[in-house]
Amino acid sequence: MTGTLQRPPAVTGEHSCWLPRHRKSAGRARRQLRDFLAGLDGGEQYADTGELLLSELVANAVEHARVPPGRLIQVRFELSPAVLRIEVHDANARHPKPCSVSEDGEDGRGLWLVQQLSADWGCHPRPGGIGKAVWCLISPTRRSAV
To answer: Which residues of the chain have pLDDT under 50?
Structure first.
């Protein structure tokens, strides 16, 4: 054999947890992400942007997803050798849309930040369940114009 067998990059690690739809859940999700990344080689290079975008996605799920009381949100992280994938699942099927933001506006910047700071992002229906998953990909080489 003259060459080496090339395999696709394996997943370095993944983690998921359920959180209440409460404004304190963004902080809990950030702690989960910090702990997850701290246990992985190279994880620290994703921490700052990951925590910011995770906070925005969790805040959207808490503030804008109109669902019956008691519904939970799920956060999921997956780190491969080149990208961190963050997903936030909620029970509302309505897909988020970035809105226009004025200079003086105090809200509405969450998805704009996700667009600017992630390598890619999107939303899809939850497989086998109700609601949606909003996701973003964070690359350590991504540079933003923000």
So the answer is: 1-10, 144-146
Q: How many angstroms separate the CA atoms of 26 and 20, rounded? A: 10
Identify the H or E element spanning 20. strand 13-20
User: Which ranges constitute the DSSP H helices of the chain?
Assistant: 25-38, 47-64, 110-117
Determine whether 89 is exposed, middle or buried from the number of CB atoms within 10 Å of its CB (0-12, 13-18, 19+).
buried
pLDDT tens-digit map of 28-59 = 999 999 999 998 988 999 999 999 999 999 99
135 contact partners, CB below 8 Å, separation of at least 6: 85, 86, 87, 88, 121, 122, 123, 124
